[in-house]
Specification:
With about 90 residues, the chain is mainly alpha-helical. The protein has one domain: DnaJ domain (Helix Hairpins, Orthogonal Bundle), CATH 1.10.287.110. It is built from four helices and no strands. Helix 2 packs antiparallel against helix 3. It starts with 9 loop residues before the first helix and ends in a 16-residue tail after the last helix.
Length: about 90
């Protein structure tokens, strides 16, 4: 899913811009869970991708690491121990 340069990024899966603040990121995650949940007619494979995307960017530390690894330009990922400025 996120292994190839041609695959969707965690931000694309969550349908947000990489510069979105922490509150909006969580809101987008919850919305995407509802949209893709198999019990409500969503796609099970996409539901799993949404969960995986959240694992990659759901905390300040994991988001900063993901942004460094993926070379996300202009992302506001803070270093661990710093506050979000969003």
């Amino acid at each position: 899913m996120f292994d190839s340069p041609l695959s969707a990024s965690a931000y694309e899966i969550l349908d947000v811009d990489p510069t979105v603040d922490e509150v909006e990121l969580r809101r987008a995650y919850r919305l995407r869970l509802r949209q893709t949940h198999p019990d409500t007619g969503g796609d099970a494979a996409m539901f799993i991708q949404v969960q995986r995307a959240w694992e990659l960017v759901g905390t300040v530390e994991s988001r900063a690491a993901y942004d460094r690894r993926s070379g996300v330009a202009g992302a506001t990922a803070a270093e661990p121990g710093t506050e979000w400025s969003g």
